[in-house]
Design a protein that fits this description.
The structure holds two protein chains of two kinds. By secondary structure, chain A is an alpha+beta fold. Chain A contains five helices and five strands, in the order ββαβββαααα. Chain A folds into two domains: 77 residues, Beta-grasp domain (Ubiquitin-like (UB roll)), CATH 3.10.20.30; 71 residues, [2Fe-2S]-binding domain (DNA polymerase, domain 1, Orthogonal Bundle), CATH 1.10.150. Chain A has a five-stranded mixed beta sheet, sandwiched between helices. In chain B, the strands form three sheets. Chain B has a five-stranded antiparallel beta sheet. The chains are: A alpha+beta, B alpha+beta. The site of flavin-adenine dinucleotide (FAD) has 30 residues of chain B, from strand 2, helix 2 and helix 6. Chain A: Pfam families: Fer2, Fer2_2.
Chain lengths: 157, 260
């Protein structure tokens, strides 16, 4: 067991976990933040995406012990007061989800994509949004409304 | 995942010691290949030695060479104005943004996946792989599938890219995995053209003599036309047979020269 300290959604947390604990397991099982989903064993689906120190990563493919001291934001951290984040609202407005399993990861990847584009003073094209979503798989929507949602949120964020 | 012991040394000597001490110890960098294989129980190291505390990350230019630290992520190389634009473009096309935020150049070339991108840039540019004990020329570094010249417990610390006159990269993605069905890296150097092909060879990345001769004589997309690319020694799988890959090598070589 190793003691891990992180700031998750602005709150300092400390837990003793086995060294092989994945960040996704740490979030879901130790912290009970089950908004982060796990959809595959192969690091391919992107349902588990969270932000670590300001970058979107697959939480199923990082060790919790390796992230001692990190700042982590999960889907729960986007709406701290119950008011939807512009990206969440845009997914809702554009019917960007059906079963919703991929949605937390889609939204976390999309927020990072839009924030990076804004910081670079760029407006995302549809092609860039699709390229940016290559690590997130959705088996329901056909992606079209997800892309529309990201484009809308990019205007509002 | 099976139980393991995690180490995060702050000095290279401690990392080497930890690798030697563990029963089956492995280097951990971005984890985008290693943790994925461990989750599927295809690898079960007893100890992981995380090298991200060793200050091996960063890009620096000196005397025409550009040195990329082993733990520099694909995203950092993609955004770099110091590496050759062809190398930045290659890094920007690896996997997806999430993989690029974690995966590292050292991990990619240590792993030497036959469909990975970086081996093409390292071999195509004629780069040098720098480790804790020595410097290895790209021509001597890559072995067969998932095989390299690295010794047990040897750690890549950096990759040094020389200056080239022109370079270009073109990749035909396997649409589901986004790894290379075929990727071709071309470089025009003072000693002639270098052409490295990834994704296609049964023994991993390789240089193509015919394309190198043609492009050394005439650096143009048209020069590729006259070259015969044999399917012998190329992979055949459900994604494409050897003839298909042979044809793609020419198409990608043409595109790579065109963007150089
Ligand atoms: C969904 C997905 C898509 C991908 N698509 C592509 C793609 O299109 N093209 C591509 O090229 N790659 C692709 N990859 C692989 C990705 O680039 C990995 O990041 C890379 O292959 C491994 O780098 P890493 O830093 O994550 O290494 P790790 O996974 O940490 O390590 C990989 C191996 O290298 C060893 N190692 C790591 N660093 C060193 C070092 N400095 N010295 C010695 N040994 C070391 C480790 O012990 C391990 O055996 C993809 C991966 C995923 C999950
Ligand atoms: S759970 Fe599928 S990529 Fe993380
Ligand atoms: S909404 Fe069902 S997987 Fe995307």
């Amino acid at each position: 067991m190793t003691e891990v300290t992180m700031t998750v959604n602005g709150r300092k947390v400390r837990r003793d976990v086995p060294d092989e604990t994945l960040l996704s397991e740490f979030l879901r099982e130790s912290l009970r933040l089950t908004g982060t989903h796990v959809g595959c064993d192969t690091t391919q689906c992107g349902a588990c995406v969270v932000h670590v120190n300001g970058a979107a990563v697959k939480s199923c493919s990082a060790l919790a012990v390796a992230l001692d001291g990190a700042e982590v934001t999960t889907i729960e951290g986007l709406a701290p007061n119950g008011e939807l984040h512009p990206m969440q609202k845009a997914f809702n407005d554009n019917h960007g989800l059906q079963c919703g399993f991929c949605t937390p990861g889609m939204i976390m990847t999309s927020v990072d994509m839009v924030e990076k584009a804004k910081a670079a003073g760029k407006t995302l094209t549809e092609a860039e949004i699709r390229h940016g979503l290559e690590g997130n798989i959705c088996r329901c929507t056909g992606y079209h409304n997800i892309v529309k949602a990201v484009a809308q949120a990019a205007q509002e964020m | 995942m099976y139980p393991l012991k995690y180490h995060k040394p702050a000095a290279l000597a401690d990392a080497i010691a930890a690798l030697g001490a563990g029963e089956e110890a492995k280097v951990l960098a971005g984890g985008q290949t290693l943790l994925a294989t461990m989750k599927q129980h295809l690898a079960a190291p007893t100890d992981l030695v995380d090298i991200r505390g060793l200050s091996l990350s960063g890009i620096s230019a000196a005397g025409g060479d550009v040195t990329v630290g082993a733990t520099t992520t694909h995203a950092e190389v993609a955004a770099s104005g110091e590496v050759h634009p062809a190398v930045a473009v290659l890094a920007a096309g690896i996997g997806d943004p999430l993989v690029r935020n974690m995966g590292t150049i050292g991990g990619s070339i240590a792993n030497n996946d036959p469909a990975a991108d970086y081996p093409a840039a390292v071999l195509g540019m004629g780069a040098t792989v720098v480790t804790n004990t020595r410097e290895i020329a790209a021509d001597d570094y890559f072995g067969g599938l998932f095989t390299t010249a690295l010794e047990e417990g040897e750690i890549i610390t950096a990759v040094r890219f020389p200056n080239v006159e022109r370079a270009g990269y073109a990749k035909f993605k396997q649409p589901a995995s986004r790894f290379c069905l075929v990727g071709v890296f071309v470089a025009k150097t003072a000693d002639g053209a270098r052409v490295a092909v990834t994704g296609a060879g049964e023994d991993g990345v390789f240089r193509h003599e015919g394309l190198e001769a043609a492009l050394s004589a005439n650096w143009s997309p048209e020069a590729v036309e006259a070259v015969t690319v044999s399917p012998d020694g190329l992979m055949s799988d459900i994604h494409g047979d050897a003839e298909y890959r042979a044809n793609l090598i020419k198409v990608m070589a043409r595109r790579a020269v065109a963007v150089s």
